[in-house]
Write a structure and sequence with these properties.
The complex is a heterodimer of chains A (about 200) and B (about 160).
Chain A: H1 3-7, H2 10-22, H3 27-46, H4 51-67, H5 78-103, H6 132-141, H7 146-157, H8 163-170, H9 182-194
Chain B: H1 16-32, H2 39-52, E1 56-58, E2 60-61, E3 78-83, E4 88-96, E5 99-107, E6 112-118, E7 121-126, E8 132-138, E9 142-149, E10 156-158, E11 162-163
Parallel strand pairs in B: 1-10
Antiparallel strand pairs in B: 2-3, 3-4, 4-5, 5-8, 6-7, 6-9, 9-10, 9-11
The chains are: A mainly alpha (about 200), B alpha+beta (about 160).
Protein name (chain B): Carboxypeptidase regulatory-like domain-containing protein
Organism (chain B): Actinotalea lenta
Pfam family, one (chain A): Sigma70_r2
Amino acid sequence: MTDQAHAMTLGERGARALVEYREGRTGAFEAFVRDATPLLWHVVRGQGVAREQAEDVVQGVWVSFVRHAETIREPQAALAWLLVSARRAAWSAVRGTRAAAARARPLPDDIDEAGEVPDAGVGPERHLLETERDRTLWRVFARLPERCRQILRCVAAADRPDYRAIAEVTGMKVTAVGVTRGRCLAKLRALLDQDDRWEWS
Amino acid sequence: MGMVMTEYSPDEPMDARDRTLLARLGRVVRTVDPVPDGLADRALFAITLDGLESELVELVRLQTPEPALRGEETVTARTVTFTADPCTVMITLSPGAGGIRVDGWIAPAVRCDVALFRPDGEIRTESDDEGCFVLEDVPTGPASLVLRRSDGTGPAVSTPVIEL
């Protein structure tokens, strides 16, 4: 990637990728797939889709993006299109899994192996966190309402210059002064203030 | 709740503390839920395959319980099941001498032309009357199966790109 491409936000890179893709050039598009895939991953996982299934959902979103490449009117909207599609596809995957789980009633012997409904909250993975502070943050984060966890996961997973690009789909606002905190980040800060084990500095 | 909490205005611009907090949360999220290696490559390969074949019915992976901890490298067989309206395909992947061995089973049992697409080419075989097929010595890496009934009826089906 060139220095110039680095300076562009993810949203701008998405717009350029789409324009070039339509013209038959795939370099910027491939780079954009690599850059935006982590963000899509966290959007999908934030909706409670299990890891393996989330892989398929992310793939499906990209395939669908290419199929719609000619119909996305504003190249500037490429990233927002992806984020909205990812959220929708994840939602429908979760719904499908729950329906399948409800249909497949486990035999008594199968209880241990019964597919659990995936949970985006706190799980055994918190042991992967090395510092007490990170564990505290993850625990407090899990207390946020589901929608706030989804939004903050998405914002946190993006690089800093990309706040603006994803503000639109997360309910944060872009003002003359900058990106607003939004109610979820405000709530997380308040919860952390209340936690004895959390220190700001 | 009735508890006194420091309130922060959602309408204020983010300050340095917000940014630090988001950066830390980003690191935490990436640690507990890392993006799978090669996911973008598999997505790009899925796009390529989608351009090659048309009118495919996409099979959906059936969810299996996740292991409690990730990252352990056990060299055992792994079974993945895909399903959609016309059929269900179960594949078991096990390490062999010259690569991965793929044991497949199609239900309802039917004779199918089986193609395994990889970025550097494809491997073909046919299922028997019981719907069973075997592909041996498949190199590791992204791959997708495409199945078509040998009698030519019905739509072809494909799996998502998975990592062998």
